[in-house]
Prior knowledge:
By secondary structure, the chain is α+β, with helices and mostly antiparallel strands. It has three helices and five strands; from the N terminus they run αβββββαα. The chain has helices at residues 3-35, 84-91, 137-146; strands at residues 42-45, 50-56, 60-66, 69-74, 78-82. A five-stranded antiparallel β-sheet has the order 4-3-2-1-5. A hairpin with a 4-residue loop joins β1 (42-45) and β2 (50-56). The longest helix has 33 residues, at 3-35.
Amino acid sequence: MSLVTLLPFIVLIGAMFLMTRSAKKKQQAAAQMRNDMQPGTGVRTIGGMYATVKEIQDDTVLLEVAPGVHAVYAKNAIGAVLDDAEYNRIVHGDDELESDGTVVPDDASSLTDGEPADDDVAKIDLGKKPEDVDAPKGSEAKDAKADGEGDAK
């Protein structure tokens, strides 16, 4: 066998190796994140529920899902460990803007500031125009068929 016939198999094996390596890195990062959890931190489960960690055992985690309501979850069910600011923003609705002071308006009012309000500007009429009363009846039939509303069945 020559090297040319073995090249596709080598490329395929190399691609499989790279894919499994990246998946393994992601799994290790997720396991490290779960191991770094501490009681009192906010988490999101893989089902999308937000809770606070109360206790951590070997394979399970005791979560407080509401004040006084506790549930036991597997460690693998923790999808993300959230920092305090993000957890409070999501769960409690704390809207602390930590930006550089630039606020983007939610309407178009800032686009018209400083422009004079001209009443002389032509307004566009978006309403339906009344039918021409003096139009010949032959043109109406012709227009109706052109619009695809003819007698075809």
